[in-house]
Structure formats: C-alpha cells, structure tokens
Amino acid sequence: MFDNAPWAGLVASAIAIVLILVLAIVIRNLAHRLITRMVNRAATGGSLTSRFRKSAVPEGIDALLHERRKQRAETMGSVLKHIASIVIIGTGILTVLERLTIPIAPLLTSVGILGVAIGFGAQELVKDFIAGMFMLLEDQYGVGDVIDAGAAVGTVEAVTLRVTRLRDVDGRVWYVRNGTITRIGNESQGWSRAFMDVPVAYDADIVGVRVLLEHVAEEIWADPELRESKIVEQPHVYGVEQLSDSSLVFRITAKTLPSAQAEVSRDLRLRVKTALDSAGIPMVASA
Amino acid sequence: MFDNAPWAGLVASAIAIVLILVLAIVIRNLAHRLITRMVNRAATGGSLTSRFRKSAVPEGIDALLHERRKQRAETMGSVLKHIASIVIIGTGILTVLERLTIPIAPLLTSVGILGVAIGFGAQELVKDFIAGMFMLLEDQYGVGDVIDAGAAVGTVEAVTLRVTRLRDVDGRVWYVRNGTITRIGNESQGWSRAFMDVPVAYDADIVGVRVLLEHVAEEIWADPELRESKIVEQPHVYGVEQLSDSSLVFRITAKTLPSAQAEVSRDLRLRVKTALDSAGIPMVASA
Amino acid sequence: MFDNAPWAGLVASAIAIVLILVLAIVIRNLAHRLITRMVNRAATGGSLTSRFRKSAVPEGIDALLHERRKQRAETMGSVLKHIASIVIIGTGILTVLERLTIPIAPLLTSVGILGVAIGFGAQELVKDFIAGMFMLLEDQYGVGDVIDAGAAVGTVEAVTLRVTRLRDVDGRVWYVRNGTITRIGNESQGWSRAFMDVPVAYDADIVGVRVLLEHVAEEIWADPELRESKIVEQPHVYGVEQLSDSSLVFRITAKTLPSAQAEVSRDLRLRVKTALDSAGIPMVASA
Amino acid sequence: MFDNAPWAGLVASAIAIVLILVLAIVIRNLAHRLITRMVNRAATGGSLTSRFRKSAVPEGIDALLHERRKQRAETMGSVLKHIASIVIIGTGILTVLERLTIPIAPLLTSVGILGVAIGFGAQELVKDFIAGMFMLLEDQYGVGDVIDAGAAVGTVEAVTLRVTRLRDVDGRVWYVRNGTITRIGNESQGWSRAFMDVPVAYDADIVGVRVLLEHVAEEIWADPELRESKIVEQPHVYGVEQLSDSSLVFRITAKTLPSAQAEVSRDLRLRVKTALDSAGIPMVASA
Amino acid sequence: MFDNAPWAGLVASAIAIVLILVLAIVIRNLAHRLITRMVNRAATGGSLTSRFRKSAVPEGIDALLHERRKQRAETMGSVLKHIASIVIIGTGILTVLERLTIPIAPLLTSVGILGVAIGFGAQELVKDFIAGMFMLLEDQYGVGDVIDAGAAVGTVEAVTLRVTRLRDVDGRVWYVRNGTITRIGNESQGWSRAFMDVPVAYDADIVGVRVLLEHVAEEIWADPELRESKIVEQPHVYGVEQLSDSSLVFRITAKTLPSAQAEVSRDLRLRVKTALDSAGIPMVASA
Amino acid sequence: MFDNAPWAGLVASAIAIVLILVLAIVIRNLAHRLITRMVNRAATGGSLTSRFRKSAVPEGIDALLHERRKQRAETMGSVLKHIASIVIIGTGILTVLERLTIPIAPLLTSVGILGVAIGFGAQELVKDFIAGMFMLLEDQYGVGDVIDAGAAVGTVEAVTLRVTRLRDVDGRVWYVRNGTITRIGNESQGWSRAFMDVPVAYDADIVGVRVLLEHVAEEIWADPELRESKIVEQPHVYGVEQLSDSSLVFRITAKTLPSAQAEVSRDLRLRVKTALDSAGIPMVASA
Amino acid sequence: MFDNAPWAGLVASAIAIVLILVLAIVIRNLAHRLITRMVNRAATGGSLTSRFRKSAVPEGIDALLHERRKQRAETMGSVLKHIASIVIIGTGILTVLERLTIPIAPLLTSVGILGVAIGFGAQELVKDFIAGMFMLLEDQYGVGDVIDAGAAVGTVEAVTLRVTRLRDVDGRVWYVRNGTITRIGNESQGWSRAFMDVPVAYDADIVGVRVLLEHVAEEIWADPELRESKIVEQPHVYGVEQLSDSSLVFRITAKTLPSAQAEVSRDLRLRVKTALDSAGIPMVASA
After folding, report:
1. Which residue of C has its CA nearest to E107?
2. Which parts of chain B sit beneath pLDDT 50?
3. Which residues belong to any copy of the Mechanosensitive ion channel MscS C-terminal domain (chains A, B, C, D, E, F, G) (predicted)?
4. CB under 8 A, 24+ apart: contacts of B33-36
5. Contact with chain G for residue E125, Cβ under 8 A
6. What is the mean pLDDT of chain C?
7. Are the beta carbons of B125 and D140 separated by less than 8 Å?
8. Do chains F and C touch (3 or more CB pairs under 8 A)?
C-alpha cells in the first residue's frame, strides 16, 4: 500500500483496476441477459414441466396465460439477477483490493464468522425461496386458484418467492411460507367432481332405486343451463357402495368444471330428494 | 512489535493506522445511510411485496399507515445498522492489529471456538430475526390486528424482530417467537364473513324456507345501521348444503368489515330465529 | 497478468488454453455418452431392480413398457448431463484462469460463501431429485397408476424428478414433492382384492350360511363376464372372523385385476344380499 | 524453547509476556465494565423492548420493578462476564505460548477435537441460555407470575438462564428448559377476563333474558367490593352466541384484574343462577 | 506440462504412470476378493448376528436358506465393490494427474462444491443403504415373510438395499425406504399365537366355564390335523382376565406355526361357540 | 527420526520430552484439584442455582442434604476429571511426537476421520451428559423423589449423568435418557395439594352445601393426626366452580406435605360423602 | 519414489518401514489388552453404574449373572477392538506411504469425499451402536426380560450393539434399533405390582366393604403357595379411590415377584368376586 512502487507499477495497477471493473460490469450484464433468456424459456414452456400445463388449461385463454407467464418470469428473474450482481460485484471488489495488495483476510474473517452464524439461521429462508422458485416454474397455482396448502385452505391472493397469500372462506388472510408446503392440492385445474351418497332402507327395491337415480342423472345432463356452464359429463350412478343392517348406500357423481362442484352438489341434493319424495322412498341414516 | 524498525517505518505504520480507522468510520457512515435508504424504500412501497397492501387497506387512513411504515423502517434499520457497525469495526481492529504485526491467530482461535459453539445454538435466534424482518417487510400484521399465530390467537400488542406479543380473549399475554410461526392468519385485512347454518326438518318445504331466508337477507341489507358500519354485501342464501334422514341444512353468509363478523353473526341468529318462529318452522338437530 | 512475458510464454499459454478447452469439450461429450448408456441400461432392465418389474407386468404390453422405459431414461439422463456439463465446464474455466495467473481466490470466496448459504437450504431440493431418480429407476409407478403417496391419494398424472402430480377422486390436483414420500402404495400392480364382511345373527346356522356364501362364490367365478375382465381367482369364503354376543361375521374375498376391486365389491354386495334375502337371513349390526 | 537466544531476546520476551498479561487484565476489566453498563441499560428501559413494559405495569410499584430489573441485570451480566473472561484469558495464554515459540498446534488439536464433539451436543445448552437471556431482557415473566409454558402451567418460582421453575396447581414443581419454550402465555400482565355462557331453552324470551343478564352485570359493577379490588369494567352481555334446536346461549364477560378472574367467575355464576331462579328460567344443556 | 523436461524425466513419468495404473488395478482386484470373502462369511454365519437365525429356523430347509444366504451375499457385495472401485480408480486418476503436474485444484474445487451440495441431500440415500445392508446382514426378513414395517404391513415381495417391496392384504404394492423403518415386526419367524377372549355373564359359574374351555383346549390338541400342521402346544386357558359388573372374561390361547394363527383362531371361535351353545351359556358384551 | 543429530540434539530432545511429560502431569493434577474445588462449590450452594433449594427443603435434614450434595459433587467431578486427563495427556503425547519430528499428520488423519464419523453419532450421548450434569447441579431431583419425566412417571431409584432410573407404580423399572427429558415435574418438593370436586343437584341449596363443606374443612384441620403429619393448611372451599343444567360443582382443596396428597384425598372423600349422606344431599353426575 | 537415492537412503527407509509396522502391531496388541481389561472392569461392577444392579438382583444367581457379564464384555470388546485395529493399521499404512514419499493427498481426497458423504448417513448407525454399548454397560435388560421398548413390547430374545430382538405376546418377532429407544421399561427387575379396582354401589357400607377386602388380603397372604412363589408383601387395601354419583371405588394392590403379577391379578379377581358374592354386594359400573 505504501511501498515505493515506481510510476510504472502504479500505472499498471490503475489500468488493471479499471480493466477489472469494466470486466465485472460486462460480465454482470451478460449474466442478467442470460438469466432473462433462461427464465423466459422456463416460463413459456421450454422447460421440463411444460407438459403439466397442456391438459390443465381450457382453450381460449391464451392471452391470460401469457400474461401470467410473463409475471412469473419477472418474479423469478428479479431474485436471480440480484444474486448474480452481488456475486460479481463482490468478486470484483475483492480482486481490486488484492491487486492493491490491501490485506483482505481480516475482512473475510469478520464477514465469514458473521456469514456462518447467519447462514445456519437463514436455511429456512433459502428453502422458502427455492420452493417458491420451483412452484412458479412448475406453475402449480396462480392468483385466483383455490388451493389446499396444508396450513391453510383458500383462494390465492398473491404469490411471492417467500410466501403465498391465501384468503379462506371466513375472510381470514393467510400467509404461508413456501418452504413449509410439502404438498399442494389445487382445486382449480381441469375439472372437479360432485358427490352424493344416497342411503335407503335395507329392504328397499335395489333395482328400482337405481333406475330412479339414473333418471335424475339423465335429467341433469339434459338441463341446458347445467350442461353449458357447470358439468362436463353425464352424472354416473354406482351400485351398492355400502351395505349394513339398516341401509343400502347408492352413490351418484358428476364431473364438473373446476369451481362448480359445490353448486352442482346442491342441485343434485335437491333433485334426488324431490325424486325420492315423489317415489315415496325416504332416505335413512347410513350405517 | 519490538523489532528495530527505523522511524520511517513507525511513521508509515502510524499513518496507515489512522487511515484505516478513518476509512472504517467513513464506510460505517456510508453503510448506515445506505441501510436507511434501503429500509425506507422497502417499507414505503418500493419493495416486491408492495402490491400486498393495496387491496387490504381501506381508504382514508393514509396517515396512520405512513406512521406504521416509519416505525417498521426504524425497527428493521436498527438491527441492520448494529450488524454493519460490528462487521466494519471488527475488520478495522483486525487490520490495525495485523499492520502492527501483532499475531491475531490466537485471538481468532479463541473467538472462533466460542463462535462455533454459540453459532449452532444461536440458529434459532437468527431464524427468529430473519422471520421477523420479513414479516415486517411484507407487513403481514401490525399492532391491533387479530391474528392466528398457531401457538396463540389474539390481538397483536407489539411486534419486535424476535417475538410477537398477543393478548388472547381471556386477557392472557402471549409471547410467540417469530421463527416458530409457519403461517399467520390475519382476521383484520379487507373483510370477514359471517356464517349461519339453518337445519330444518327433512319434510320441510324447501322452497318456502329458502324464500324466508332470502327475505331475512334483504332485511339485513336494508338495515341502514348494519349497512353503514358492518356489512359490505347483501347476505347470500345457499341451497341444501347437507341432507340427512332427519334434516335439511340451509346456509346463509354475509361479507362484513374486518372486525364485525361476530356481531353480524349474532344479529343473523336473532333475525333468522324470529323469522322461523313467526313462520312456525322449528330448527332441528342437524345430522 | 501484465508481466513482461516473452512471446514464447504467451504462445505456450495460448496453446495450453486451447488444449484445455478442447479437452473439456471432449470429456463432456464422453461423459454425456457414458450417462446415456448407463441410464438406458438401468431403465431397460440391466439394473439391480429389474426383477421388480417382471411379476408386476401383464403380458402383451411390451411396446407400452418400452416407451415408458425410454421416457424414464430421458428424464433421468437430462439432469445428469446438466450436472456433468456444469462440473466439466466449471473446471475448464478455473484451469484457464489459473493458467493465465489470474487470481481465482476472490471468485472462489464469493461463490463459496454464497454456495454454502444456498447449499444448506437446497438440501430439500437435492433430496427431492435423488428420491425422484430412484423412483424412476425402480419404476415404482408411472402415469395412470393409482397410488397412495401419504400426502395424497389418486391417479398419477405426471412424474418429474422433483414432484409427482396426482389427481384425487374429487378432481383436486396434488403436487407432492418426491423427497417427502417415505412410502408409496401402488394399487395398479399385479392384482387387487375385493372384500366383504357378512355379519349374521349370533344364533344363525353357521354351516348353512357358509354353504350359502360358497355358493355365491362359485356363481361369481362361473359368471363369464366377471371372469374374463375382472377377477382372477374363485372368491374365497373364510369362517367366523369375528364373534360377539350379537353377531357372527363371515368374510368373503376375491382376487381381481388391478383396477377392478371396487366394481367386484359392488357386485359381491348385490349378490350376497340377494342370496341372504332369498334364504331369509338378515344381516345384523356387527359388534 | 531451547534455542541459544542471547539475553536480549530473553529480556524482550519477558517484557512482551508481562505486557500481554497486563493488557489482557486491562481488557478484561474494560469488558466487564462495558457489560455491566450495557446490561443495566437493557434492563432499565433503554432497550428495544422497553415499550413492552409500559402498558403491562400497574402504577405505584416502581420500587418492586426497580429491584426486579436489578436482579435481571445481575443474572444476565454474570454469564456474559464469565464468557468475556474465558475468551480474553484464553487469548492471552495462547499469545504468551506463541511468543515463547512453544508449539500450540497439538494443544489446539486436542482441544479442537473435543470441542467439536462437545459443541454439537451442547447446542441445546446454548439455546437454553440464549432463550433465557432474551426472556429476561424482554421481561416476559417474573417470579410470582402465572404462566403457561406449554410443558407446564403454574406460578413461576425461579427464573435462571437455563431453566424456569414453576409450581402447578397440584403443588408439583416443574423445571422447564428455556430453549424448549416456543411461546409463553402470561396470565399476570395487565388484565384478565371472566366468562360465563348461559344456555336457556329454545323458546325462551330472548329480550327478557338479555335484560335480566344486563341487570346482573350492572349489579356486579355496582358492588363496591368487586369494583375496588377485582373488576375493571362493567360486565358485558353478548346476544345469541349459539343457537340449536334445544338451546339459546347468551354470554356474559367481565374484564378483571390479573389474578381475579376465577373469583369473579364464581361470583358471576352465583348471581346469574340466583337471577334465573328468581325469574323461573332454568338453564338447559347447550347443544 | 509443457516444461523442457529432458527425455529421462518423460520416461520416468511414463513408467510411474504405468506403475500407478497397474497398482490401482491390482488393489481393486484384491479389494473385490476381500469383499467377497467378508460378505460370504457375514452371510453364512460367521457374523455377530449369526445366533439370531438358529432359533428362528425350522429344520430341513437348509438348502433354501443356503440359497437365500448366497443371494444376500451377492446383493451386499455388489454395492461394496462399486464403492471400492470408485475410490481406487479415482485415487489412481488423481495420482496420475499430479504426477503429470497438471493442476488438480480447479477440478477438486468444482467437484467439492457439487459434492457438498449433493452430500447433504444424499444423507437419506446413504441411510437407506446402510439400513438395508444391516437388515440383510442380520437376516431380519426375506421374500415371503409377513412383516409390519410401520408404514405398511404385508408380505415381502422383494428386498433391495434401498427399498423393501411389500404387498398388503388388499393387493396394494408398497415400496418402503429401508432407512425409514425403525422397527420391523416379523410374523413368520418361529411361532405365532392365536387368541380368543370369551366374555360370559357376571353370574356365570366360573369353575364350570373354565372346565368347559379346558375341554375345548384338549379337544383341539387331540385333533390330528391341527396338531400336525398348525398348532405346536396344547391351548392354554387363563382364568378371569377381566371383571366388570356385566361380564367375566376368560382367555384361551394357542401357540401355532408361523402362518397358521388366523386359521386356528377361526377354528377356536367355532369350537368355543359350539361348546358354549351346547352348555346353554351365551356370550355377553364385554365391558 | 533417523537424521544424524549430534549427541547435543539428542540430549536436548530427551530433556525436552521429560519436561513435557512432567509438565503434563503437573497440569493434570492442578486441573483435577481445580475441578474438585469448583464442583464442591457448585454442589454446596455457591452456584447460580443455590436459591432453588432454600424454599424446597424442610428443616432438620441438613445432614442428609449434605450427603446428597457430596455424592452429586463426586458424580460430576468424576467425568470432568476424565475429560481433563484425556485432553492433557493427548496434548502431551502429540507434543512429544512433534518434538521427536515423528510425522503426526497420518495419525491425525485417521483419528480425525473416525472422530467426525463418531462425533455426529455421539451428539445424543453428549446431550445426555450435559443434561445430567445440569440436573445434578440444579438439584432438580434426587433418589426417592416421585417425578414425572414425560416418558415415565415414578420414584427415582438412581441418577447417573446419562440416565435416570425410575420405578413406576406397577413395579416396572424405567431407564430414561437425561437428554430426552425436556421438563421434569417433581412431586416431592415443598408441598402438594389434594382436590375434591363435589357435584350436587342443580336446585340444591348453594349456601347450605357451602356451609356443610366448610364444616368438613374445619373438622379435618382440627384432626390432630392429619394436622401433625399430613396437611399444612386448613382446607379451602371454593364456590360454584362449574354450573350446568343438572349440577352445581363445589371444590374443596387441601395443601399437604409432599407425599400425603393421595391419603388426604381419600380421607376427604370419606368425610365429604359421610357429611352429604347425613344431610341427605346426594352427589350427582357432573355435566 | 524414483529419485536417485543412494543405497544408504533405501536401507534407512526399509528399516524405518519395518519399525513402523512392528510398532503398529505392538500398539494394536496393547490397545486390545487395554480394551479387554477396561470392558471387563466395566462389566463386572467397577463402573459408574454398578450400583444399579445391586438392588435389582435376587440372591443366589451369581453364576448366571457372571455368565451374562462375561458375554456383555465380549460383545462390547469386539467392536472396540475392531475400531482400534482400523485406526492403528490405517495410521501405519499412511506413515509408510509418507516415508516412501508417495503422495497421499489424492488418496485422502477420494476417501475424504466418500467419507463425508457416508459419514452423514451413518450417524444413525453410530447412534445405534453407542446406545447399545451403554445399554449393555448399564445392564438395562438381558435375554429373557420382558421390556417395553416403545416401538414394541415383549420378551427379549437377543441383544446386539445395533438392534434388540423381542418377541411379543402374539409371537411376532420385533427388531428395534437401539438408537431409537429413548426409554426402556423393564418388567423383570426386582418386583411387580398387581392391581384391582372394586367399584361398589354409591350407598354401599364403606366400612363393611373395606373390612371384607382386608379379609381377602389376609387370606391371600396366608396362602402358602402364593406366599412362597408369587407375592412378596401382604396385599394392601386403599380407601375410596374414586367417588361418583353411582359408585365408590376401592383399590387392592399386591407386590409380587417380577413375572407373577398377571397370575396374582387373576387370583385376586377370583377371590374378591367370590367374597363379594357371598356377602351379596354386586360390583357396579364405575363412573
């Protein structure tokens, strides 16, 4: 630092430092571009997981999906760019310090001790970010989907790399750390299914009840309103699902559009009850 | 330390030491300013999570929010400044010691052994601080919010980086370490929802009951007092939510302001019971 | 970097660098080929686990299995090739930098600190990938199988190295991280079994009931439709499985094809009930 | 150690050693003073958590609180001083050994291996101490408070940095390690709340019962004895908290002084029962 | 690498490299032979755990056991040989590189960073292999045994070092990672025991019932079919196992061959019921 | 080792080695004395936790406590002395080896690899010892105390640094590892409390029952036998602890000597029942 | 390795290598002897835990215990000797390689990377061995004892350092890893206790029933058969253990020899029932 370096040495040092800094900026820019390209490719379908989306996406909503992909790419890219900048600039500074023969060991010691101390505690944070990154990459859910995140169930209001924000049915807002989610159940992909179990008396006419329920199923499928915006297949009637000394249980199911199973279930209950009433067959307590 | 250094060397050392110390102070001040600016930007909306607040905040309370933001910025900045000071001053001292050719290995050894021993045990502490930092940054809750922190449910009385202090409904004060909170449920953001399930007899008049309940819903929405300060939408009546051999269950829900769901629920119960009574329809035990 | 090296040294350096890079590319290509061969052998039956598949695979579907094996080999190979490329190219770059006498310590320091910080948090990710790799290698399940993954039960829709995507019976899509799966139950390998417990009154004629049930078993086995596409063995009637003050419980079981146990169970219930009815023996509540 | 050092070297070594030891003692004393000052400031309100105490502390007990603060400061300072002494004296000894050119590597090796072995096992111990330190610093509870520490509920009998000693209601003494406490519920800060749920028959006169209960609330608030030493607000009567086919549940609550909720609850039960009896309204089993 | 080494040096290097490679191959072969011998000794009874098998193995099935031992030895040896080869070949390559004065630091750096990252995540894998190795070594179970592995209960279909494959009673195939099994219950070693609890009325004749049950026990032991292939001891009748206001419970147990307890239990139930019926003593609901 | 050192060097080495060994023995003895003194001081009341014992110890049993303290001091000292000896002797041997210029790197490598492998696995062991050390130091329990250790409840039969041996009420002996105990409940320190809840009919005379129970309380306190050796305060009668449609629950409690609560409870039950019987007030089922 | 060393150097090297190997063998033999002596002393009562056995061991079975001790010593010594051999031989080989100036860094690198990878995964294994070592040392249980190991309850069939083999009451064989056992309950040490709770009607004659039960207790104690081989103290009758509106519960307990409590309980039930019957006092359902 204070050695009697001749002018030549000083000039060489100055040139070296300028070169190092220029190089650092160039590499940083290259890294940012590379990240942008990678993230875009990952988000728009060139990734391993691109086949996930094909089946789950109804047609005609390409624009909406395109927008969602772009947002995901930005969220992911933003953090990766920060990390790249920190690494490259940090390396540049350390190289300059070394070129100037300034001792960097004390600095590394201080930062190292602190770094290890914090590193252990920050594991959870890194886990959250990695989990969030992959959730976005795999497009497991988006704003507006109804998901079961284990700790909470509700409608997604926001997704960041660290937390997912849900609002449950009581209006409570839940912040769930992404790293604590081991499995996600998404109720808004592709289709849902409405169920109804119909317990009748042990000595009921098995064939008659089945015919009655199949009739309800056809009636539902014939209803233009339901068919258009709620169900996607004719409801299906299963035979004796359960058998006890007091009841026979029949089951009727209907494949519906993602968010329509609750409404279809209510409709199903109403129609089945009406049909049973008019046939004089009461429901009984199952098992 | 006791080598026969000529005067020139001593003077050079003295100058170097003074320079190092001056540099350390300058860098420390710069770091503090940088932290202040970063924290302010994060707290006032330039952060990743700023969009979180938009939807959850009713209008006209900007001043209050501004104050809350300022406090959050101070809490976060305070710890970061302490950490920066310790790192910079520690580096400065080590550099001076090295410049004086005093052996620092023994010191590093002692501190290192102790540091590792404490480091492992302090993981939890660091986790608490990191979790607290992000909770503040994302503004997940503030003083006065009613939250479900898993370990305890109650009104937030204080938020620090390490613990959150709640008071539950029995008046018990709870100290919950931030790092042990994996999900937060906040009941005071945006809106809440009041529920009531109405079980009537299996052979009740489905349509009649539904009309009756819808009438109650309209009556509530028409009540100026409720509409002004408690509910935000006309209550909604769902059809047959549940069906058993003994009862039909209807459901009625009302979207309310954040803290009003308990009161609206009581009102709902009173009105529904009165309406059923006057129509001569008793509630029954649901399945 | 800026030393006055004579031309000879510069030329030697340039040749060395070119050689290093050529070598790196050659080694990378060799590694990729090696991986392709290893993965293919593992996937097509040369592995430790090849005996697993033999018993579980019905005949005549070789082509389908061949396709599935090829896909698995590609999925596995893709990640291994990425890892090999990163290691080999990274080594090449570091060797070139060293040859150029550019100091790489600062770079390693920056990357190392970051690497350790991320390394701890990425454990879960690596666990997921390793678990996924072995699940594929051992062919534990494939698209279309019905599995119990602990966190969720349903039909497999997609398998990647990190997550398995299921759809449960309600139409909910589940993303389960492979590393969190400690045991897999696959309902679609080889055969399943349909059960029915038949409780009759405590004072029923034990021998008579048994004969009646055996008759039902023979009838089922004689049914050409069932025999052809659903069951694989004549149903078996066990004696008194349970005995209480109010009932005797008989059990009847039938070995079926993988996905047919639900349908066979319904058929079994229908036939047993009909047989009991015609013999005037009512089922009772089992203890 | 046995080199032929001239007298000059020996004298220089002797002086250096004396200087090192003097320096170590001086630094140790400075560190102790610094710790004393820091701990006192933290304990008497200059800390981050000082605002916690303000609201929770009734007036007029400053002396008692002052004493408690002093004790906390001593407990915390004691351990910190021990740690500082060990580090400084250890460094001093190692420096002396190095100055004497005695090889310290073997010593460090032995101590290091043992240190790592013990270090892992001692994590829990360090966690307990850190947790205890912060509990004291934040004044979460003190001797005499009734707390819920998860593992045990009772009156605090002693607080040390490692364990908290409670005595539960059966007279059992509990030793709970501070590090295992993830949340503390303190029933002795500020106020408590007494509850009573009053279920009456489904067809009871809603308005009449409410008026009756409000009358009891006023009566309680008017009672000088209760008002002086037990309750802090007029009891509050809520409307229909719960509604079933057999009962209507009213709720009455009273905010009390920290330790008075049990007594106020008993009083409440007595008065409500008497009032209901005199009005001829029996309590019923709530749903 | 490009230094002006005279021919002598080059030749010496070449000889050294050849020697290193030959040595590596020789050592590898020696290691493989050593492993084969060790594993065979361990598997055929020279190990610590050999006494485990003695009691659990019925006579006359030596050939079968010999085959099973051989297979276990192969499974275990295969992995150990892979590990030995990798270590020895890796060491050889590194030694050659060093001999050639090629810098291996960059390579070690790249591999090391990756190695640590993967190492943490691969813990579970290593645990699985170690657990599998010891399970095989101790012969805890083999193909065909019925085991309770905690996560699943069923018949073992395959055992590899990483997973155990079971098939449960419903025909579901379970893959259980060996490392997640903390305890194994094997129902197919040595003998099993059939149980039956016989509750009779509180005022029944204790001595009479006991005599009746002992008679059943003798009858069972006298049955040649049962004695030959199912039970190994005369059934034992215990006195009053349980006593309540409504019933006296007697217990009868029979030691059976490993897989025969279910059948013996059914036989026991039939015979006890018949005996009680003929004596006019009804079973009652036990407390 | 085989260098041509002149006699002078050999003699110097020999002297150095003797000196090192003498020094090691001297330091070891000093360390043992220091440990003895420290442990004695800690065990006899000079420690942080000494105030714990004051309140919990009845008077007049100083000798017994003195003996217990001495034993604790010996148990603790024994392990610490072993550790000190191992460290000091190990350091001595390594120093001698180094002085002899014998290469110790291979030894350290072998021991180090083994040490790390064992170190991780031995964490639990170290935890047990540290926990045992502090339990002894804090005198949480001793032989003869009745404790609740979570995993088992019973009378302490032996305390070592690694395990605590209990015998439960069925005579089963439990070995509980000290490190797995997160909280200890000691029933034998200071006092215990006997409880009795007295449910009477909803329409009972509240005041009359209370007077009756207070009379029983006085009677118990007046009984010289109980007062002398079992209870330490007059029993206390609380008012209406619980109120339902069918019962009013009163509570009576008595503070007793540590092991007397079971006997006092039986006495309490007998006396209360007799008193209620003579007053014609039956107990009812509490809600 | 290929340097032009004169014959002198070669001879010196050869001598050194022979010396190192001889030394290694000598040290290994010394270590084995030391281990044998230590383990014998630990197993035969010179250890910390020797006092554990004194109270738990009935007299006259010294020979059996001596045998058991010897076996334990062998089991423990065997593993320790293996570890010592590996360390000493490994050190010897490394020292010879270094003496020959063969570079050992590549070998250490390969082994080190593998070692760390395996080390993490082998933690569980080491835990099992350490736990097994201490269980043997403390003689917590032996072959033939009935123990509760948490994961399984049964009779110990074999104890090795890694697993404990039990057989439960159904004849199932359990392999429990020693490291997963946090507490052991041993039912075969010293004594057991038989219990019987006797609920009689609320209005029964308390004194009369107690006299009756005490009479049964005396009768049992007077029975020579029981006294000789089953019980060790006169059974004890406690007063009113429980009191409800429908029953008074008395308790009678008897201290028995380790394995006799089940038989004594049956005898107790028979005698108490007979006595109650002859006195016309029926047992009732306890609360």
Report:
1. C91
2. 1-3, 46-60
3. 196-283
4. B35/B77, B35/B80, B35/B81, B35/B84, B36/B73, B36/B77
5. yes
6. 82
7. no
8. no
